[in-house]
Design goal:
The chain is α+β, with helices and mostly antiparallel strands. The chain is built from 5 helices and 9 strands. The chain has helices at about 20-40, 65-85, 115-125, 125-135, 145-150, and strands at about 1-10, 45-50, 55-60, 95-105, 105, 110-115, 140-145, 165-170, 175-180. It has a 7-stranded mixed sheet, sandwiched between helices. It has a two-stranded antiparallel sheet with strand order 5-6. Helix 1 runs antiparallel to helix 2 (about 65-85).
Length: about 210
C-alpha cells in the first residue's frame, strides 16, 4: 500500500518511572490525535501501531501531506509548550518526528514491513535528529524524507516554508540516507549516523546517545 508514514518518539522515555511513562504515553496519543485532526486526517484515513515510547501512523496516500506538515510545525509545538508548562520536570515531554512516504506491506500477522518504513525508522533513530532536538527550544524536532521534500516541501506551500528545511545525510548500516531537517543543523551535522545496529525503535536507545557535537 502507498502510505504517508508519520513517526513520533518521546525523548529519554526509558529514564522515567512507570507512572511517568504511562502519563507520557497518554500525552503522546493526545498530541498525535490533535495534530492529525488539525490536518483533517480522521481515523478512517490512518492506521496506528504502538511502539511503547513512540507512535507510528500509516496515513492514506490521498490525505493532504501539506496539511499534515503544517499541523506538525504549528500545532505540535504549541501543545507541547502548554503541556510542559503545567508538568513537573520529570513529566515534561519532548518529541522527535519523521514524515516519509512510500510503500508498506501488511503481512498475515498484521505486521508492517517495507524498506521505506525501515528508512523512516532509521531517520527517527538518527543521532543527528536526537542532537537537533537537544538544541530546540520548542521541544520538537522534525525531519522529512527526501521524497516528501521533493514532492511537497520544496514547493514552499503556506505554513511549510522550504527555506526552513536543510539537507542532511544520515549514515545507516545500509548506506547513507538523504533527508531534510527542519531548523538549524547541529554542528558537524553532515553525517551523524544512527544508533547501534540491531536496536529496534523504542528500545534502550532512548538513553542519550554519545554526542558527536563539539
Amino acid at each position: 500500500m502507498s502510505r504517508t508514514i508519520l513517526l513520533l518518539d518521546i525523548e529519554r522515555f526509558s529514564d522515567r518511572d512507570d507512572v511517568e511513562q504511562a502519563y507520557l504515553r497518554r500525552m503522546l496519543y493526545d498530541v498525535t490525535d490533535r495534530a492529525l485532526e488539525t490536518a483533517g486526517i480522521d481515523e478512517t484515513l490512518r492506521t496506528r501501531a504502538d511502539r511503547g515510547d513512540s507512535v507510528m501512523e500509516l496515513i492514506d496516500a490521498n490525505a493532504p501531506v501539506t496539511a499534515l506538515l503544517r499541523a506538525l510545525l504549528t500545532e505540535v509545538p504549541v501543545q507541547l509548550r502548554a503541556m510542559n508548562r503545567m508538568a513537573s520536570r520529570s513529566a515534561q515531554m519532548r518529541l522527535r518526528g519523521v514524515v516519509a512516504g512510500g510503500y508498506v506491506a501488511v503481512d498475515d500477522l498484521d505486521g508492517w514491513v517495507g524498506s521505506d518504513l525501515n528508512h523512516a525508522c532509521r531517520l527517527l533513530d538518527a543521532v543527528l535528529l536526537r542532537a537537533a532536538l537537544r538544541e530546540r527550544p520548542d521541544d520538537f524536532a522534525l525531519c522529512v524524507s527526501d521524497s516528501v521534500y521533493q514532492g511537497v516541501v520544496r514547493h514552499d506551500h503556506p505554513g511549510v516554508p522550504a527555506a526552513d528545511f536543510h539537507q542532511v545525510t544520515v549514515g545507516t548500516k545500509n548506506g547513507p540516507l538523504t533527508a531534510w531537517l527542519h531548523g538549524p543543523v547541529p554542528p558537524a551535522g553532515e553525517d551523524h549516523g544512527e544508533r547501534g545496529t540491531g536496536e529496534a525503535p523504542g528500545g534502550s536507545g532512548d538513553r542519550p546517545a554519545p554526542s558527536t557535537t563539539p
